[in-house]
Amino acid sequence: MQRTVFFISDSTGITAETIGNSILAQFDLVGFDRHRLPFIDTVQKAEAAALRIKTRYAQTGERPIVVNTMADRGLCETVAASGALMLDVFAPFIGRLEEELGTKRSGAVNRLHGLVDFEKYEARINATNYALSHDDGIDVDYAQADLILVGVSRSGKTPTCLYMALHYGVSAANYPLTDDDLDKLELPARLRPYRDRLFGLTIDPERLAQIREQRRPGSRYATLQQCRWELDQADRLLRRAGIACLNTTHVSIEEIASKILDRFGIERTMF
Questions:
Q1: HEC states along 155-210?
Q2: Which range is most confident: 22-31, 78-87, 100-109, 124-133?
Q3: Structural domains of the chain, ranges and CATH numbers in brackets
Q4: Which of 12, 20, 60, 245 is deepest in the core (most CB within 10 A)?
Q5: Contact at 8 Å (CB) between 236 and 185?
Q6: Is 219 strand, coil or helix?
């Protein structure tokens, strides 16, 4: 079975896509052809979106599904005229909140990802710059780090650091364990003063070899034997140092970040 899904928003569409994909993941026997339509914030754009959806309906003979986070009811109704199944993310909550708060919603568009709080936005940018400058041991001044991820090359350290910086304003650095570190089986000297901020990432050797092969085809770096040796040594090193570790093989970046933040007791809402 194959169905078409449109994620429609008056802003970036990230919320509609994230929530929509979480719901669709519950239906693993169905294939979904996904399309994101962001910044549908005028009647003209809503009419164009409705035409696209209606055209898809005619082409496939299957009713398209729309996951919608548009705030303006008029725009929602315009898109709904396409005949699609409309799943309004806000609908279950808005009415009850209006009743509880004693006020109607504003219906203003493009609110979620706008620059509402400049202080938080600046913190996010600063954290992102920090993650980039402290990526793979480029800068080893870890005094300002909220946490430091440790692991072998390509185990997921960089994307996790950037995700935490972009979404939570967390200053996260990362340190790649080198062959020299792994031979000695000792925590690198530059990390020892920050032992309480360290967290290890590991990965299955087969998956690591696949990732490395894409980066450096045919290299010793990408061989399964080298990956197994590095991961085994890294595991022994982290265990000896008493550093908590997470296997990232079958875990999303979002879940990795959440588990790390929970481990360190860092409670910050997503920006």
A1: CCHHHHHHHHHHHHCCCEEEEECCHHHHHHCCCCCCCHHHHHHEEEEECCHHHHHH
A2: 78-87
A3: 2-101 (3.40.50), 118-263 (3.40.50)
A4: 20
A5: yes
A6: coil
For 137: left if phi > 0, alpha if psi spans -120 to 50, otherwise beta; the answer is left
3-class secondary structure, 267:
coil
Does residue 180 register a pLDDT over 60?
A: yes
Q: Which two tokens stand for residue 227?
A: 């990956």
| Helices and strands in the chain, H and E counts | 10, 8
Q: Given this model, what pLDDT does residue 115 score? A: 45
**Cα dihedral 11, 17, 19, 20 in deg (nearest 10):** 130
Tokens found for residue 178 = 């080198």
Residue 201 pLDDT level (bands cut at 50, 70, 90): very high
Q: What angle do CA 92, 96, 101 make, to 5 degrees?
A: 140
Q: What are phi and psi of 159, to 5 degrees?
A: -60, -35
Segments of 9-73 assigned E as strands: 31-37, 65-68
- Phi and psi (nearest 5°) for 201? -120, 135
> Distance between CA 150 and CA 248 in Å, rounded?
13
Tokens, residue 175:
């340190």
What one-character-per-residue DSSP string does 88-121 give? ESSHHHHHHHHHHHTS-----SS-TTS-S-HHHH
pLDDT tens-digit profile of 32-42? Answer: 999 999 999 99
